[in-house]
Amino acid sequence: MSKRILCVGAAVLDTIFRVRALPSGEGKILPYEMVQVAEGMASSAAYAIVRLGGSATLLGSVGDDDTGRRICDDLAQAGIDTSAMSVVAGAPSALSTILVDDRGDRLIVPFYDTRLHHTIPQISDEMIAGFDAVLVDVRWAKLAREVLRAARRAGIPAILDGDVAPSETLLSLAEIADHIIFSEPAARSLTEARAQADLVQELAERFPQAMVCVTFGPAGAFWMEGTQLHHQPALQVRAVDTLAAGDAFHGAYALAVAEGLGTADAVRLGSVTAALKCTVFGGRTGMPLRIEADKALQQLPSSSVLRP
Amino acid sequence: MSKRILCVGAAVLDTIFRVRALPSGEGKILPYEMVQVAEGMASSAAYAIVRLGGSATLLGSVGDDDTGRRICDDLAQAGIDTSAMSVVAGAPSALSTILVDDRGDRLIVPFYDTRLHHTIPQISDEMIAGFDAVLVDVRWAKLAREVLRAARRAGIPAILDGDVAPSETLLSLAEIADHIIFSEPAARSLTEARAQADLVQELAERFPQAMVCVTFGPAGAFWMEGTQLHHQPALQVRAVDTLAAGDAFHGAYALAVAEGLGTADAVRLGSVTAALKCTVFGGRTGMPLRIEADKALQQLPSSSVLRP
Questions:
Q1: Alpha-carbon gap: A96 to the closest alpha carbon of chain B (Å)
Q2: CATH classification of the domain holding B233
Q3: Which residues of A have a CB under 8 Å from any CB of B?
Q4: What's the whole-model pTM score?
């Protein structure tokens, strides 16, 4: 039976424009392709889980408007359980515009009305105990903290997607999680260390209760477990669209952990899922199937122990 | 009774993000305000006409989708007659993202599917003769040419919003119109002349059948009638959002001409309408009422004859 993951956080209608080059300053820039897709950190991770054969329930918040209905419909059609989504009257749903250039680089302009996340739904320990793992992002921090705490009480993996956010938000979540996967910019916002290995080690010492991992895109992922620092090289691919690559990593990692895999194997599944996603234009829609990820795992270099 | 203007061309759902500064390259940029509004060159001009007390009918094309219904609803609620809009099955409606910075400068990312404008609706001379003027933009050039020709046959003003477009498109429209208002970038795309006065004079000689005007934002408008070159200084305002300022000018000019005003007075109404629009954030929604435009006209410097 497929493992059940609860994903908490971002749900937004993205308009993705494909352009030759990212803009600089005033003017008009003509995209040659456009898609609209409901996604966001937790939503895209949920979709990665579904594509890899897991089951994903999303807790996010939308406004009581056309965009909100479209977000929920789109995610439900993608196979994500959206029955517990919050609908807030009087707040506009989140939307963002993303420009992706011919090198796969992206410019993101996200807009979230703060009213979407003022209140939180009731979370019971029984509800959380019905899942095999929880994965939260930084977007709905108040709810994410409750869910992480409930997951710890229930003894299931409490995983944090540590992306860029105000430091007090990021710290308040990282102190509770028992698995933290930081993006490079978020990791750099918390420490002074410059070398990748030092950065990871410093963060791991700061959050001793957790497995701490930092993803560096094509430079791979570094993680620390106990006193050992590991490096997993990335699968080398031609990047077309790096949007939602981090979310692919987090979703795959969470599913692997829920399935009982060890950290090294979970990081490996995260790595190939993220790399394969980058080869397809269209944000989260490029998530690979499990059979594709398994095949790519055979090409993935082994991880190595860097320290001690 | 209010004058009736037929506006032909762009109809798009704009998402306008207000940002501190326009982006440069990759990353994430956080807007502090967001609005969505149906607009576009002809649509925004139509709204200027309505706000100034005229009557505007819009001929534009949308897809058979949620965005298309939203565009038509939004424009109809704004008081524009949208009963003749075309709906194309299987094509996505046009949408664009606009970033406006704290200086009022803007970056536009428009997306139009070419299928929206493949075919054109039937235009009869009787239909066109029911209007007091027509105003066309460059977006649906095939239809714009038919409408300009019919307006010339009907003896009503045939006005072109000469904005940036492939030169053959722009030229094919400019050759038919009897009033042409070029934006500065479009005017510069057609001539080598550098000084503003030379630019206008050269274009006027190229389109001898038409009143030719070029708008230069805060540097005012230059136009040529017969052998006289005129300059109308702009009203000096603190610009908050220059989006749709050109459209404000075109709509006001068209209404004034339909009302029987001379070119100088029509340019004056266009100038103040554009300037007032720039003082309000939110694209076309900032169009002034006639009473506001009339008041501003009293502050507007007189025009002067530059040549001969």
A1: 9
A2: 3.40.1190.20
A3: 15, 17, 19, 22-31, 34, 66, 70, 92, 95, 97, 99, 105-111, 164
A4: 0.83
